[in-house]
């Protein structure tokens, strides 16, 4: 079985490539902890806003990232969550999805020292447990020695269609054209970031998900 072969799995790829869906399902099937590293930046952003710290104050935000008591756990409540996010004693799993966090997390995640401290926390979480970690620089920066590195890719049009359907399902009003424009802009930002840019590891297994179902992608990974 896959879980006996690999202790740490890094999954990278652009927005809409299926990283979270695939990683979450793999974790359920094979007993891994699933960690979307983006939630850690969201948790720091939430803590900054909760304590009325200006997000433009890089030094103050960095202190929060350094000192935050943050835990990512397997789901503790059956409410559709993929994991439980705890800041100190507070369950912030859904709070970090609020619009004020959405509007500020990009700035918080752009701070060099914030990324440094959270990268260290991510490595600590991964130490000693079977884990599937998802992001854009996991295989190159966070876990460069991961046992298995996967890079999921798909065309902007396919990814935009996925996001469009996802948004419609959740009652959000958006056109396919708007979804595509958003994907293209996000790709540009992710590749041009000075810190935390999306990079494909040289030793990553590349899986093109354009014409594959979720089950077909999972089967490909199970065979690695």
Describe it for me?
This protein has ten helices and eight strands. The protein is globular. Helix 3 (38-50) packs across helix 5 (99-109) and helix 4 runs parallel beside helix 6 (112-126). The model has no long low-confidence stretch (mean pLDDT 91). Strands 2-6-1-7-8 form a five-stranded parallel β-sheet. A three-stranded antiparallel β-sheet has the order 3-4-5, covered by helices on one side. The chain is 49% helix and 15% strand. It has two domains: 7-32 and 130-219, P-loop containing nucleotide triphosphate hydrolases (Rossmann fold, 3-Layer(aba) Sandwich), CATH 3.40.50; 37-129, Rossmann fold. Strand 4 (84-87) and strand 5 form a beta hairpin. The chain starts with a helix and ends with a helix. It has helices at 2-5, 19-30, 38-50, 58-67, 99-109, 112-126, 138-142, 156-169, 176-192, 214-222, and strands spanning 8-12, 33-36, 70-73, 84-87, 90-91, 131-135, 148-153, 205-208. With 224 residues, it is of the alpha/beta class.
Number of helices: 10
The run of helices and strands is: HEHEHHEEEHHEHEHHEH
Unreliable stretches covering 5 or more consecutive residues: none
**Strand line-up of the largest beta sheet:** 2-6-1-7-8
User: What is the helical fraction, as a range of percent?
Assistant: 40-55%
| Strand element count | 8
From the spread of the alpha carbons, the general shape counts as globular
**Radius of gyration, Cα only, in angstroms?**
17 Å
Whole-number average pLDDT? 91
What number of domains? 2
Kindly provide the name of the CATH class of the largest domain: Alpha Beta
Compute the separation of the termini in Å: 10 Å
CATH topology tier name of the largest domain: Rossmann fold
CATH superfamily of the largest domain, by name, is P-loop containing nucleotide triphosphate hydrolases
Gross CATH architecture of the largest domain:
3-Layer(aba) Sandwich
């Amino acid at each position: 079985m896959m879980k006996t072969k690999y202790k740490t799995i890094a999954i990278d790829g652009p927005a809409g490539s299926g990283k979270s869906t695939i990683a979450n399902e793999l974790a359920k099937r094979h007993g891994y902890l699933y960690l979307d590293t983006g939630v850690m930046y969201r948790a720091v952003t939430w803590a900054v806003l909760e304590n009325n710290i200006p997000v433009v104050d890089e030094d103050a935000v960095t202190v929060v990232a350094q000192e935050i008591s943050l835990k990512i756990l397997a789901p503790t409540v059956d409410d559709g969550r993929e994991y439980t996010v705890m800041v100190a004693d507070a369950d912030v799993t859904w709070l970090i999805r609020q619009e004020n966090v959405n509007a500020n997390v990009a700035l918080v995640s752009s701070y060099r020292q914030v990324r440094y401290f959270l990268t260290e926390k991510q490595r600590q979480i991964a130490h000693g447990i079977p884990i599937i970690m998802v992001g854009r620089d996991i295989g190159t920066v966070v876990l460069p020695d991961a046992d298995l590195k996967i890079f999921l890719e798909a065309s902007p049009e396919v990814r935009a269609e996925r996001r469009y359907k996802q948004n419609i399902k959740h009652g959000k009003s958006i056109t396919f054209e708007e979804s595509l424009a958003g994907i293209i802009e996000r790709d540009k930002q992710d590749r041009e970031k000075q810190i935390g840019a999306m990079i494909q590891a040289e030793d990553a297994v590349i899986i093109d998900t354009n014409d594959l179902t979720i089950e077909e992608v999972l089967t490909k990974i199970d065979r690695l």
